[in-house]
Structures are given as C-alpha cells and as structure tokens.
Amino acid sequence: FSPLTKVKLINELNEREAHLGVNESVSWHTVYKDSAWIFVGGFPYELTEGDIICVFSQYGEVVNINLVRDKATGKSKGFCFICYEDQRSTILAVDNFNGIKIKGRTIRVDHVKDYRPPKDHEDIDDVTKHLREEGCAPAAPESSSSSSEEDEQYKKKKKKKEKKEKKKAEKEKEKKSRATSSSSPPPPLHRPPPAAVRVKEEKEDAAYDKYNQRGAPPGGHENGQRARENERLRAEEEGRRDEDRRRNRERDREGDRRRETDRDRDSDRRREMDRDRRRETDRDDDRRRETDWDRDSERRRETDRRRETDRDNDRRRETDRDRDDRRREMDRDSNRRR
Fold this sequence. Notes:
two-stranded antiparallel sheet; RNA-binding motif protein, X-linked 2
C-alpha cells in the first residue's frame, strides 16, 4: 500500500470502531500495548526534532525521538520514530495526528510494535544509551534471532570498553604508587621485632545494672513520644502523597474521559453534518427534477397549442375554399340563366 492509502485505512478503522462503540480491550490498539513507540512519516524535510516534539507533545511527554537523517549530508529523510512516557499517549497521537496536514503535506502516524534502535557510534550520551538498553516502555518479546545477536554484540562491545577502562585505571594507580615511593625516604634495613600487644579487659560498669533495675533513663519516655510523633508525621506525609497521586490519576482519567466524550461529540457532529449535506443534496435533486418536469410539461403544452392553432388554420382555409367554390358555382348558374 502507498502511504496515503495507509492513512485512509487507519482513519476508516478508527471511524468504524467509534461508530460501533468498540471497547478499549477489544480495539486494534491493544496489539501495541507493550510498545510506546510510534512512526511519523511524510512531514516536510525542513522540520527539526524540536518542531516535531512541539507538535506531538500535545498528547503526552515525549521521552525519545529518532529523526532519520542522511549520513552523508545530514538532511532529514522525512520520517522519524517517537517514544512517549505513557503508552496511552500513542493511541491519542495515532487517532488525532494521522492524516493531518503540516505545511501542506499529509503525514502518517502509526504504531511500532518491535522498535529496534539504530547502530550508533561510541560517542552517544549516557541517557540515550540507557534508553536503548532498557527502553521507556514494557519490553516486548523479541520476534527473531537477529535482534538477540545484535544484543550479544552490543554486550561484548560494552565488556571490552569496561576492560579497557579498568586497565587504564590500574596503570594510573601504579604510576601514582611509584611516584609516592620515590618521594618517601628509604625504609631501614633491619627492623626490630614487633612488641607483644596486651589487651586490657574492660571493667563492668555498675550503672548498667541500675539501668536494668530502674528501667529507661530520664528523658527516654519523651524520646519515645518524639519517635512516635515522627512516625505519625511520616505516615501522614505518605498518606498525603498517596492521596495526591490518587487525585492526579483521577484527573488523568477524567481528562481521558473528557477527550473521549469530545471525540464522540465531534464524530456525532460530523455525522449530523454529513446527514444534513445529504438531505440538502437530495432536496436540490428533487427541486431540479421538479423544475425539469415543469419545463417539459410547458414545452408539451406549447407544442399542443401550436398543433391546435395549425389545425384551426387548416379548418379556416378549408371553409374559405368551400365558400369560394360555392360562390363560383352560384356565379356560373347565374350566368347560365342569363
């Protein structure tokens, strides 16, 4: 399929699910529930990573982006891969951004099930390396043996780097130890034998017995109350944090529900507008048919009138002829008589 046909197919699938009221657990988006990556293609070549993040961060926090560029020139190839912090943002992005136009070009947005990171050079930063190793979403099962081989090669390279770094660190330590040994005075040739060390036995303090007999020392009860108070405050603080988290989750859910209701309203409005347009077109067609029928009837009437007038003219001509014939006969008879 061409990119534009894929855009149309995705939009038709979303409209069909919205029309049928399909549940989220049965939707076609659940196939990609383990991947937070999406594919974006067909956008203008002059857009940068920042421009794309500004557009696609409307429906979630963008964690990573891979804008594919030409290795020789460094120019954009017009497609990229984006990773969201939350996988639900991918559904919103695919439903809302697929088929829109950016600077006159229709873009295609689709899910990515098994995203494979590109083979970068050794000068990548730690954050990107961490994202490439662990990912930013639930890890999907590997589909082929080629991905496992690539991971093994990457691990071998990492082990080689660690060994090189360890060797460098050991060499630096040896250099430092040599420099310190050269600066310190030489040790004596004959060392005396070490003297025997005597360990004194610690005497038992009678205050421990008093402590055991009397109980806690003065001020111990107050310290216990303070510890309990601190524990209570910590528990209250944890409860507040849990409450704030619960409220944030409720707000997110409420926002998702509002977005879904807005989508349903937009779809209903579009359907109503389509129905009104169809009704208007049907009415226009009926009006045109009526006007065409009226015109045909007028033409028929006009032709009938013309035919009637022609017939009347023919009749008049015949009557005039008959009159002329009669007059001639009368004239002849009169002439004969004379």
